Amino acid sequence: MHGLMMDTQLSVQLILERAKQFFPKKEIVTRQANGNHRYTYADFYQRVLRLASLLQQLGIKPGDRVGTFAWNNYRHLELYFAIPCIGAVLHTINIRLVVDQLTYIINHAEDQALFFDPSLAPLVKQFAPHLETVKNFIVMDENPIEELNAQSYEKLISEQPTDFVLPKITDENMAAGLCYTSGTTGHPKGVLYSHRSIYLHSMAICMADMMGLCERDRTFPVVPMFHAFSRSNASFS
To answer: Could you tell me where the beta strands, DSSP code E, fall in the chain?
Structure first.
């Protein structure tokens, strides 16, 4: 006999939908070199849907790995949700690693696409020729970078619909995130996070005996989004 109350798979999609449903007017603020960027969770939700549509258009399938090579910002947060919400695996890449390690990690993960911050383009140029599986380079900016054949993030998502329907996550144990740790001997080792683990970690962070977060609080995630999956998913919380 099974209990059917709250009979649902724990997934990143539930976190996204909750933000849109209950806190559409709350703001996400990113401090950038040219000033602050502000938008609401409602705006964020629409952009995540556009991005999810783009990912499918690029041929990203459930289980495929998609790399992000970026600082903490609102576009990186959009990728944090859009990638796992279509069943793909978010691979956050440590920008502090050396070129040989970066090349190894991306090839070992078999990333199908790489999203990167424009300020990191000089580093991407060093390892891009050695990547074996990346089919699409997308620069997280308004302008493309022709030298890398990198398309513009903003242009690509502007062409996508806002009524895209996310595919249902039917297995909470599906991989949602991938990080590589360099804290061992030899090559960095990959660690996979499931939808279930992300959901439970995010709930734990909000509990009274942890951080006790509520919707009235303002949080400032200082830990890099590429480090330990943003310190066990603080960005999702």
So the answer is: 27-32, 35-40, 65-69, 89-92, 111-116, 136-139, 150-152, 175-181, 189-194
Q: What tens digit of pLDDT does each residue of 176-233 get?
A: 999 998 777 888 899 999 999 999 988 888 887 878 887 888 888 888 888 876 655 5
Please tell me the distance from the alpha carbon of residue 22 to that of residue 176, in angstroms, as a whole number. 24
Domain regions of the chain by residue span: 12-199
Residues across the chain: 237
Contacts of 231 (CB under 8 A, 6+ apart): 221, 223
CA distances 59 to 47, 135, 183, Å, are 19, 10, 33
Q: Which fold has domain 12-199?
A: Rossmann fold (3.40.50)
Report the 10 Å Cβ neighbour count for 97: 18
Residues 197 and 179: their CA atoms lie apart, in Å, by 14
Token reading at 206: 């909000």
pTM, two decimals, is 0.93
Any bridge partners for residue 36, and if so which? 31
Q: Which residues contact 47 (CB under 8 A, 6 or more apart)?
A: 78, 157
Query: Tokens 């041929």 belong to which residue?
Result: 59
Among 27, 110, 37, 24, CA closest to 72: 37
